[in-house]
Design goal:
137 residues; mainly alpha
Length: 137
């Protein structure tokens, strides 16, 4: 599949070489490491930013995040970083591990078993990092 005359492949190869020359650490870049740079927002900040600040009777942060998780599950494996971040935030907003699992399982009817399974794997990675009460260890 590698075609040295393909301009797209040549451009990608040049970009990779330039990135390695500028920062050799990029050679072993991992998106999971990048995720750790994003802190989990406090529930109150999520409420203010995503809901209750505009509509007092609107959805709370926990419900919004469970809905977001459902949508991300539908997108499938391409959403690994977003799923893990959303699970962290949902736990912070008061969602239980069972509610998170149930949300993902519910999407199997719409997204299919492979998407549900992959999303559950990403969620378990986060939930394994947390204690019983859902807070980061």
């Amino acid at each position: 599949m590698s075609d040295p005359t393909n301009p797209f492949e040549m451009m990608m190869r040049q970009a990779q070489e330039m990135a390695k020359a500028m920062n050799p650490a990029l050679e072993s870049f991992s998106p999971k490491g990048f995720e750790k740079l994003w802190p989990t927002m406090p529930k109150e900040f999520m409420e203010m930013s995503f809901g209750r600040g505009i509509n007092k009777e609107g959805l709370d942060a926990k419900t919004r995040l469970l809905l977001t998780l459902a949508g991300l599950t539908m997108l499938g494996a391409q959403s690994d970083t977003q799923i893990r971040l959303t699970v962290r935030h949902a736990l912070e907003a008061g969602a239980t591990k069972d509610e998170i699992a149930e949300t993902i399982v519910q999407m199997s009817m719409f997204a299919g078993i492979p998407s549900m399974t992959r999303a559950m794997e990403f969620a378990r990675e986060v939930m394994d990092e947390t204690g019983e009460e859902g807070k980061q260890k």
